[in-house]
Amino acid sequence: MYGTRFCPRTLRISDRKNAAWRCRPRSLCRLQLLATCSLTMYLLNGRLAAHRDMFINQLRAQTEVNTCFNPEISPCPYNRKKTCRGDIGMIWSIGVAEGRDPFKLNIRGPVQTGGDVSGSGDPVLFVADPFLVIRPDKWYIFSEALDNDCQKGYIAYHVSLDRGRTWFYGSAVLTEDWHLSFPTVYSDAGDFFMLTCATAGTQAPYVLWLYHTTDAFPTGWRKHTQILKNQTVGRPVDPVLFNHDNVWYLFLLDDGINKERLFFSSSFFGPYTEHVNSRKYTMRQSGRILQDPNGVLWAFHHTSRTVERWQIETLTPKAFKYGERHKLLGPLKAHWASTGMHTFNAVQLGSGSWVATVDGFWNDANFSISRCLAEGYRDCQTLTNVVDHKLN
Length: 392
Known about the structure:
Layout: H1 26-44, H2 49-62, E1 90-101, E2 104-112, H3 114-118, E3 124-134, E4 139-147, E5 152-160, E6 168-174, E7 180-188, E8 191-198, E9 207-213, E10 222-229, E11 236-244, E12 247-254, E13 259-265, E14 273-274, E15 290-291, E16 297-302, E17 307-315, E18 320-329, E19 340-348, E20 354-363, H4 368-374, E21 387-390
């Protein structure tokens, strides 16, 4: 028998005296279908934003039993009932590079993989976007960790007690309802601030949050200041702050127009004003701005598989220009970075030598790591033997 929630093709007449159910008239079924379609289109057109947000909040509440909210909408290639990011076949790992010249370093890697994090219980597919923070007694790497269940990134930290020779996973330090990556960290007199890239799960008007922590470092991050609000067409991707001649500059890719946007301010906390020479370059930052031993400023640009260094020829509140460009990183012979590389963050040590964090990926065409994690396993990838590679 059909209940009142269904519209059968052949309508039946129920016993009005004893039936506990009743078929709906065919005309009512058609009206119901029409109303459902109309309401769906109404929501898709964005005219009921409040109702849409209420629905999303209800969905998030329902997924709390799974401890996460998945912001993706595209089906997984291996499970059409699940939604996934488009990069789950890119297995990123972290390496460390050292040497006397910031652009001629020996890369050791991988020093941290998704397997190191998954070993702690989290189903992490990969770790990427490593940023180095050096303290007197410990070295830290802050990175994106991609949760395979939630299909979004959170910010994690890794720690070394022997000046970067060996690394251990610490913990998650920052999570949001949206995807987080690219954690650039800045310090000032014991205060620490962090910018992140916020993408999947965010909605216009787009904002850029500055997070803050003090005594709880490397954990304890909290929202501090919105340094940008509704000043980009799309999402502010891979933002980098840099102080030059007592002026703060903010570089980012606006994915709404696929152009680099440049802002400046007299204060670290803003407000930030768009530069007159903004939107001139198609450029996506790959790490902190670097001043080499000769005083030349370099920015780092990410292509699909390589990292290039671009000279900043001019940088003032009234003028900005890139100059010469050189390839810096690309695919390595080592398996962990055999398909491409993305991030380069170099720090000069007191001895004059340089240490940098990099990341690389290999192509998991069959999505074997994501499949393995989805089945509940946590030993899907392990820390491979560390190999050396010298930059040309």
